[in-house]
Structure formats: structure tokens, C-alpha cells
Design brief:
10 strands, single chain, 40% helix, 2 domains, alpha+beta, 11 helices, binds 5'-O-[N-(L-tyrosyl)sulfamoyl]adenosine, elongated
Length: 351
Amino acid sequence: MTSQNLARTIEQAREAALEELRGLTGEEGLEEWRVRYLGRRGRLTAALRSLGTLAQEERRVVGAQANQAKALLEESLAQARRRVRESRIAGLAQEERIDVTRPGRPVAMGRFHPLTRILREICDAFESMGFQVVEGPEVEWDRYNFEMLNIPRDHPARDMWNTLWIDQEDDEGRQSMLLRTHTSPMQARTMERVKPPVRVIVPGKCYRYEATDATHEWHFYQVEGLAVDEGITLANLKGTLYEFARRLFGAERKVRFRCDYFPFVEPGVEMAIDCFACEGAGCRICREAGWIEILGAGMVHPKVLEGVGYDPAVHTGFAFGMGPERIAMLKYGIEDIRLFYSNDLRFLRQF
Ligand code: YSA
């Protein structure tokens, strides 16, 4: 190619490029334009590559013209990019303009699950009586769930708690780990850790392999209570639980204590409250009893105290384990325990 032809080619490429650039409004179009003129196979780049075919003097003159054209196109591209970016931002600002006069959208307020509420109320009531809240593991050793509570293997009392076992065997090939059936294992765990006086309550989840009905779930909460000191008697237990019932249900609610059996207490009692639905007359909810049992309790068995290294001749204590679901049912007039775990918003929104 002659030097005049090459100079013309450069001139034409430059004019065409500038002309095209003026019509471009998008970033994609600008990139395509760059590839077409300034890319490795672009029109101007090809012209620059042909410079090598010219004589030295011609190459100097046409080369200077080519470099100027290249610099001009690069600068024009940079300007075009700025222009496109600015107009995009201006467009966005226009689109997203905030109308401060529009009414705000209502904020959806969350609320506590009724069981969370009742657990907090129970804990508050006992904390104000000097108890401290502690928590323990839901996956428990047989040793704590049964043996340290005076329930050795093959003891018939184990039948009261149909258990969900974990695949974990001890040295003798016997199952040794389970989902705890009650919060009572925390009695031994706490007493192993601290010396008397002890005053703790333990909220937590429990599991039993049992059929569900209006008052029974296979997983449910319990709140355990334990007080050990010198001179603690059954009167202290009754006084504490009466005060608790008064705070939660009001002074007019009836409370009943009856003897009950738990291997880890002596003597043992159960506490019930008159049925909210039939006021004691007997109905489906209370299984015609007129009363709904809410907790088991008693004086800590001397063997349990000895097992953790306490001297039962010096220290005595009471313990209790209650079901917060049953307490919430009584307090809010809920007829079926399964409602707590069905995640039905029509139910939950009422609290
Ligand atoms: C007894 C004496 C003590 O010194 C300390 C604690 C206890 C309680 C004992 N550990 C226990 O679990 N007794 S219990 O089987 O009668 O359960 C206690 C409470 O848990 C019941 O009164 C009931 O309110 C609740 N509960 C038991 N099984 C339940 C349940 N709630 C819902 N669904 C179930 N399946």
C-alpha cells in the first residue's frame, strides 16, 4: 500500500469511528465499537500494522498521523463512557426518587411463642424467690437420667418413661445414651458441681416415646426445681409451689397435692390445678377428673443425696418437675397441647 493510500485509510477509519461513536448510548455498544476500531483486529490497528511496509521517511509522517488518530479515538471513547455512565446514574436517580409524602408501609411485628412466654413467666416467678436458672443437655447418659436418680437398670419405674435411645453402647454392650425423658438429670449434675445451699430451676426440652393426645406430646418442656440446704422440709416445698401457683394463676385458683411415687423422692407428691374448662366438674380435657396434673415433686431421696457426695443427715432438699405446656393450657384455656407445635398462625397470633 502507498503512503497516500494508507493515510487515506487512517483518515477514513478515524472519521467513521467518530461518526459512529456519536450515536452510541450504551456500554455494550461502546465496547463493540472499541473492538471494531482499536481492538487487536480493529480497523485502525490494522492500518497501524501496515506502517511497516512503508519507507522510513513516509513511515515517520504517516505514523505520526496514525498515532494522533489512535489517541483521539481513545480519548473520545473515554469521554463517551463517562457520558453513558452519568446518564445511567441520572436515570436511576429519577426512577428511585423517594416520595416522602407517601404513607409508610406497616412494619410486621413479631411476638413470642406462647411457650416462650410461659417459660419466662415461670422462671421469673422462681427467680424472684431466689432460684437461679441453669440448663443441661437434651441428649443424656443413662447414668444421669436414671441411675443417679435411684432408678437402676431393670427397675420397674423405667416403664413410666418410654424412652428414645441413641445408638451408643457401654462396655457391657448396653444402650447408655438417650433423649432425656425429664429434666431431673440436672439434679445430679448440679449437685455434683456445687455444695449446698442449692436453689436452681432448669427449663428444657424432654422426649418420650408415647402416643399423643390432647394433653400428651412426645416432645415437651419441663421446668425442674431443686432446693437443698440444712433443715428443708415438705412445708417449704408446699409453700414454694403455692406461691408459684398464686403468682401464675391468681389466688382464686384451686391447688391439690396428692401422694405420688418417684424413685428419687421420699415422700413424693403430685400437684394439680382445677380444670379451666369445666371448673372441676369433669370433661374431656381433664379426662373427667376435674383436675389437671401439672407437676411431680417430693423430698430428695437420701440415696440421691449420697450419690453426689452430700450427707443426708445434714442436708435435705425438695425437688419438682412441671410441664409448661400444661400450665399454658390452664392459663390461656387451650384445649389441645398439639396446637403449640402445629405452627398454625391463626393460633399463634392470639398471643
Ligand atoms: C418428680 C419429683 C421430683 O423430685 C422432681 C421432678 C419430678 C418430675 C419427674 N421427673 C417427671 O418427669 N414426672 S412426670 O412424668 O409426671 O412429668 C412431670 C410433668 O411433666 C407432668 O406433670 C406434666 O405436666 C409434664 N408431662 C409429662 N409427660 C408429658 C408432659 N407434658 C406433655 N406431654 C407429655 N407427654
